[in-house]
Design a protein that fits this description.
This protein is of the alpha/beta class and 325 residues long. The chain contains ten helices and 14 strands. It folds into two domains: 168 residues, Rossmann fold, CATH 3.40.50.2020; 141 residues, Rossmann fold (3-Layer(aba) Sandwich), CATH 3.40.50. The strands form three sheets. Strands 10-9-8-11-12-13-14 form a seven-stranded mixed β-sheet, sandwiched between helices. The radius of gyration is 20 Å and the shape is globular. The two termini are 25 Å apart.
Length: 325
Amino acid sequence: MASIYNEINVFTGNANPKLAEEVCQYISLPLGRAEVFEFSNENIFVRINESVRQNDVFVVQSLSSPIHRSIMEMLIMIDALKRASAGRITAVLPYFAYGRTDKKDQPRVPITARLLADMITVAGANRVLTVDLHAGQIEGFFNIPVDNLTAAHILADYFYQRRLPNPVVVSPDLGNAKRARNFAELLEAPLALIEKRRMGNNDTTSVLNLIGSVEGRPAILIDDEIDTGGSIVQAAHTVLQSGATEVYAACTHGIFSSHAIERLNASPIKELIATDTVPLPEHKRIPKITQLTVARLLGECILRIHAGASVGALFTREMRIGHDS
């Protein structure tokens, strides 16, 4: 199917330029020329340095640290592209911030994920491309099309190639059960669940119970996001105490804030696999963290969106990066 738009342009802010460059390498396209910087008064300036008139434009920007600058860069870039007469603007958000504030779970609190969705739409985005939203309902916060990709196949393929003997997939909390179940199906492995209770708003949790058996098996803890590392480390101790032979962890978004790196480094987790939806700075790189790229996944999806082809077909035909390459 031929696109109704002219050329593809891919631009990026300062949140994750390496990923944007790798996406462009995959689709054999130079990264779009733009100036994106912050004045001394903390105002952000954006200038698009090439024509985008009636083009199909993609803005690759993870909403990662510093989150609020990353958000403003993205919004201002979208506005600049809209005013430059871009034919269609797709906000490519490998990591969508504020994903945990998707509902009112306490009195007098905001639904910030909805607010952010409104801001992206009002700025001028025509569609959104993201990876592993924390809650699927966030898709419904947008009044524009949303493609919520998953990195599960990339992570599963890595463990498939590791050939772990009889692994068991473990969800570190009940809310993540569906994601863990799907991951277990990819590995043709059994599933276990950890029941936990979050105590207040200070990122501390209390593990209550392990549902299922991990006895005599290597355990793979799977989550969409690892932030401070407290929950995943607590889960690792739980499965080892329940008889697991060793423990691995995997996530799409490795935030690793606060003392996460020190906590993970001292933990019994043998290896932690994350993707590059969020950049991993040099000071956070430790031997037990392995980072996989989602550049091919995003690049293939961008090509399909431009051509008007099916995005879902990427997964119905089992797009396993290692198997296809």
